[in-house]
Write a structure and sequence with these properties.
Elements (H helix, E strand, L loop, with lengths): L1 E2 L4 E5 L4 E6 L5 E6 L9 E5 L2 E5 L17
Antiparallel strand pairs: 1-2, 2-3, 3-4, 5-6
């Protein structure tokens, strides 16, 4: 979970979604589909006055067929 100064909370999960919530009221602000399940806590940074949220997402053998690369 990552919380911005304005109270927006970001959550990433293994169900392949990144979500933003209003930290005060709990309302979901938006949801974005990831290419695979998240494997980290969201991180944020600001560049040229714009905020960015990043998270690592990738397959694993435990994720099942279609989500993993076998070697």
């Amino acid at each position: 979970m990552r919380t911005r100064d304005d109270g927006v909370v970001f959550l990433a999960s293994a169900d392949t979604t990144l979500r933003a919530y209003d930290g005060a009221g709990g309302d979901e602000l938006w949801i974005e589909e990831l290419p695979a399940g998240a494997h980290s806590t969201p991180m944020g940074y600001r560049h040229d006055g714009r905020d960015y949220v990043v998270v690592t997402a990738g397959g694993s053998l435990a994720a099942g067929e279609g989500r993993a690369t076998t070697w």
